[in-house]
Amino acid sequence: MKKSSTHRLSDRVLWALGRSSQQAQRLVRQHMTEAGVRTLHYHVLASLADDGEGAQATLADRIGFDRSDLVTLLDELEELKYVERRVDPADRRRKIVAITPAGDKQLLAMDELIAAAETELLEPLSASERKTLLGLLRRLTSE
C-alpha cells in the first residue's frame, strides 16, 4: 500500500478551515506569550469593553467561562489594575466587574498583538484575497 503525504481530508473545506484556525490560534498565543500577556485576560477585557460592566456570573456566562475559573482571572486582572469589582447596590451578594482605563489601554495593546498574528497568518494572501476570505467566512458564520 502506497503511503500518501497528505491527509485523507486535505481536499475538504472543513479540514482546511480547522487547520487554518489552529494556525491562527497558535500565532495569537505565540504573540501574547512573547508579550507576557494571557489570552484568557483578553476575553474578559474585550467583553467588558464591548458589552459593558456586569455581574461576575453574567460575565462568566457571556464569555463561556466556568464561574470559579473566572474568579481567579478577575483576581489577576484586579491585581494588575485592569478591572475593578464593586458590590452591586441592588444585591450585596453580587459583585459588578468593570474595565479600568489601564484595562482599556492593555486591551488596545492586545488588539495590536492579535493584528500582528493575523498579518503573519495572512501574509501569503494579497489584500484583495484577504478581503474575499473575510467576506466568505462572514457569510459562513452569518455575521
UniProtKB/TrEMBL annotation:
All residue ranges annotated as the HTH marR-type domain in the record: 10-142
The UniProt entry's coiled-coil ranges are none
Write down the superkingdom of origin. Bacteria
- Mind telling me what this protein is named? MarR family transcriptional regulator
Q: Which InterPro entries match?
A: HTH_MarR-typ, MarR/SlyA-like, WH-like_DNA-bd_sf, WH_DNA-bd_sf
Provide the transmembrane region boundaries.
none
Q: From the UniProt record, which GO molecular function terms apply? A: DNA-binding transcription factor activity
Listed under GO biological process in this entry are: response to stress
